[in-house]
Fold this protein.
Amino acid sequence: MAAFHPAPICKSAPGKGLRQALSSLSASSIGRNGSARRLVDGPAKAVVDTYDNLKLGWALPVSVEITIEGSEMRLHFESRPQVRAGINMIYTALLSSVYYAVKAVVDPTILPNSGLARPITVTAPLGPVMNATHPAAVNGRTSTCQRAADLVIGALAQAVPERCIAAGNGSCATASFAGTDPKDGHLWVYLETIGGGSGARAHKDGLDGVHVHMTNTSNLPVEALEVEYPLTVLRYELVDGSGGAGRSRGGMGLRRAYRAEAECHLRLDGSRLLTLPWGLEGGHPGGCGAFHLGDGVEPFVGGAGRLRAGETVEIITPGAGGYGPPPERDPAATAHDRADAVSVKEHPGHCTDPGL
């Protein structure tokens, strides 16, 4: 697609020319969105999932029902009443999650303007977790947004599975460290977000150790971290066996272990600790996440606690679901897995040790 440059239009016909150009771009998005959506026209598609979060301590059901009628798409979300934890999301966060997921499935090249949003109607009762109202806490809503995107993709997969991916890590695992540097007495704060597995695709394996959907932060090199902060990274690796088996393998999660070199406070957050990232079209689910405290660490409360000098914590992020029946996997791909010493999560299972 040719790049759009408004400057020449503004110069030749101030105001009117720009409005016409923007109107044309909006109309183009509406047309492309509508023509692609005819691929999923038909009965309502509904998905129910279970959302868990370290701040929550238990799992709650979330669901979406998608109805396609002509050129209109309606999405209705249901969830439990908002909670006293920072996982609630407001309506605009729900909208952004929906627009992203629909765009990704229908046509990733659709311009993200009002033409994309206009044919889409999103509803949810006011007051539950997925459409919270004041004074609900919303600072940790990113993982909830991830689950909203998973719901939409999972529902659309019932109609156009070849356009969709299996569930990814569905989380935004975070570790927030804070303390006083013993070398100079200065306060230090370090926040890290950690990726996981990306869902398998119809003809490609999922990506290993990446951010998915609503997050995309960069990876701080271990060397830079250890120079700047009183922390040591003991392990940083892919979690073997966390990608779901399938014709296409689900992406693997990450394991990251830290040792505190000085006393510090630590807050942890994440999702998919009690539930597995689902597979598609016969693919198996991926592995779930966990947080493990080292020997001697005092128990954390609500994901928050402290580490004394020499104490450790290990973070394991979820993998992702596989796509298609495992027996259909290309023998060459299986041989490549063996050469790389990669194993997959062969059978549907359960999360048994979320830690903390």
